[in-house]
Amino acid sequence: MYSRSFLPSPRAANALIALGAAALGYALYLRYLMIENSTVGLACEAGLDTSACMARMIAVFLFRYQAFGILALVASVYHLLRPQIYAFAVVARGGAAGGQLRATRNRRHTAASSSSSAANHWACQFNKPSLKKT
């Protein structure tokens, strides 16, 4: 039984590159301008009702429940069973968005677990400094 491996046409490959770049660009936009920006975060949590705050809230909610990774995993299994360009596009977009947003949580989590809070910028934001020597 001869099976041809998945190989998108040049036009489809160009479309996949554009979709992947758009997903990565939007994930970078959400990460650096919506999620990590403290001014936007404080305004949104104070009750500002804009589309940017709604996008931020949805991205944080989906990230919290690993929706990007689950979507990419399900689409990749489907793509293994039935190779199609649409499933491959969903895998690429979900992986690009989830991977970029995941990098934020790993950096903060690792930094906040450091034992020396004065030597670590992120840990200083989460732990109140103490003047007492222990």
Structural overview:
The chain has 134 residues and is mainly α. It has a domain at 10-101. 72% of the residues lie in helices and 0% in strands. It has 6 helices and no strands. Helix 2 crosses helix 3 (51-64). The longest helix has 28 residues, at 85-112. It is elongated, with a radius of gyration of 20 Å. Mean pLDDT is 77; it is low at 108-129.
Task: Give the key terms.
134 residues, single chain, mainly alpha
Amino-to-carboxy terminus distance: 71 Å
Give me the secondary-structure category.
Answer: mainly alpha
Sheet-strand content, in percent, reads under 5%
Shape: elongated
- Count the beta strands: 0
Provide a compact summary of the structure:
It contains 6 helices and no strands. It has 134 residues and is mostly helical.
Write the layout of secondary structure elements.
Layout lengths: L9 H26 L2 H8 L5 H14 L2 H15 L3 H28 L8 H6 L8
Helix pairs in contact: 1-5, 2-3, 4-5
